[in-house]
Design a protein that fits this description.
Layout (H helix, E strand, L loop, with lengths): L7 E3 L2 E3 L3 E3 L15 H10 L5 E8 L16 H16 L3 E7 L16 E2 L8 E5 L5 E5 L4 E2 L5 H17 L4 E5 L5 H6 L14 H4 L1 H14 L4 E5 L13 H11 L7 E5 L3 E2 L2 E2 L9 H4 L7 E4 L4 H9 L5 E4 L1 H5 L3 H7 L25 H8 L1
Parallel strand pairs: 3-4, 3-16, 4-5, 5-10, 6-9, 10-11, 11-12, 12-15, 15-16
Antiparallel strand pairs: 1-2, 7-8, 13-14
Helix pairs in contact: 1-2, 3-6
């Protein structure tokens, strides 16, 4: 019997299967970083009766933008745009959370009016931002050395996260997820390779975890714990991340999150770095290591196939499995996996930015078959 297609719960919500739409940066918003018709179509295509979706990483402020064209949630216009998405998804019978995001040192001045990004410490990331040129084209851009946050400025960042969580509620989402992975701001505070602070947001694991936990507390003030998730990458190196004792660091966080009664913990498995497959090192931390620490449901992501998804569910290391790249090219992915149907290949060249090509033009299987006949 397939475990992937048995019902389960996410917080108060009943979901009909365990195939989750992972939060996927696609950079298709309209001017002002507002979700428009194209984004509505994209999410509706991937919504299914009883399905669970996590909408893409969404900056909580103008100062947190890493990728030009990513939708935001800090203006009334953005809130109204997202409301159109959630209304359409709910009409299809799906549940949708929104992943909230701040790039920290990975944000780029050209995406935020020339201001320098902020971070726990003035240490540069050597990943690439994506900016929009004067002629409207997307291009990679080198990161810059960020400004180290003053201690008394940190509360303002927590407030930005809370304001976006409130907007997400008004926009009709069913919950929110904190993006605390992939070297973005909460991850930068958490790991000692990027956090050299000497105040009570740096030094010990407890101090380095403080910012992340304060944001989660702000989210749960708005939503209650059972409508909040957190995404971590315990073995992630994307964003030039490192920690001297990742087992201790991430075990501490996973345990500390228990007090909030969260909807889930979302873990990126070690074989993924950004959108690339990698070979995990022998000391890598995976879901099986944190499963006994965190007491709530666990979602895993990281290059899964139907077979490997069934295996991790059967092993008891996870409760649901998030799919990314295959969901890009297969809007009806749950049905294809359930029936063992062939999958459309994805086109990496159209992952980020552009128009409908590689975004809403992948056919569902029924349409594909009808066109062939």
């Amino acid at each position: 019997m397939s475990l992937l297609f048995t019902p389960t719960k996410i917080g108060p919500y009943s979901v009909g299967h365990r195939v989750v739409l992972a939060p996927l940066t696609r950079m298709r918003s309209e001017p002002g970083d507002v979700p428009g018709d194209l984004m509505v179509d994209y999410y509706v295509q991937r919504a299914s009766q009883g399905g669970f979706m996590i909408a893409e990483a969404t900056p909580v402020s103008y100062g947190g933008i890493v990728y030009a064209g990513a939708p935001g949630l800090y203006t009334d216009e953005q809130e109204a745009g997202w409301r159109r998405v959630t209304d359409a998804v709910h009409a299809k019978g799906a549940t949708i959370f929104l992943q909230l995001w701040h790039g920290g040192r990975q944000a780029h001045p050209q995406n935020m009016g020339g201001k320098l990004p902020v971070a726990p410490s003035a240490i540069r990331s050597y990943e690439k931002a994506i900016i929009k040129t004067a002629d409207g084209e997307w291009e990679d851009a080198e990161q810059v050395v960020p400004l180290e946050l003053a201690t008394d400025a940190i509360a303002g960042l927590v407030a930005e996260f809370k304001d976006s969580a409130l907007r997400a509620k008004r926009a009709g989402f069913d919950g929110v997820e904190l993006h605390a992975a992939n070297g973005y701001l909460p991850d930068q505070f958490l790991q000692d390779g990027s956090n050299l602070r000497l105040d009570f947001y740096g030094g010990s694991i407890e101090n380095r975890a403080r910012f992340l936990l304060e944001v989660v507390a702000a989210f749960t003030d708005v939503w209650g714990g059972d409508r909040v998730g957190v995404r971590l990458a315990p073995s992630g190196t994307f964003g030039n991340m490192s920690d001297s004792d990742p087992v201790a660091t991430f075990s501490y966080v996973a345990n500390a999150l228990n007090r909030f009664g969260l909807a889930y913990l979302h873990l990126i498995e070690p074989r993924i770095r950004g959108i690339e497959d990698v070979t995990p090192i022998s000391s890598a931390i995976s879901a099986k290591d944190l499963r006994n620490v965190f007491k709530g449901p666990v979602i895993v992501a990281g290059g899964f196939t139907r077979e490997s998804a069934e295996q991790i569910l059967a092993a008891g290391s996870a409760d649901l499995v998030a799919f990314g790249r295959h969901f890009v090219s297969n809007p009806d992915l749950p049905e294809r996996l359930r029936l063992g149907l062939p999958l459309n290949p994805y086109d990496r060249a159209t992952f980020y930015g552009g128009n409908h090509r590689g975004y809403t033009d992948y056919p569902a299987y029924a349409v594909e078959s009808a066109n062939v006949s």
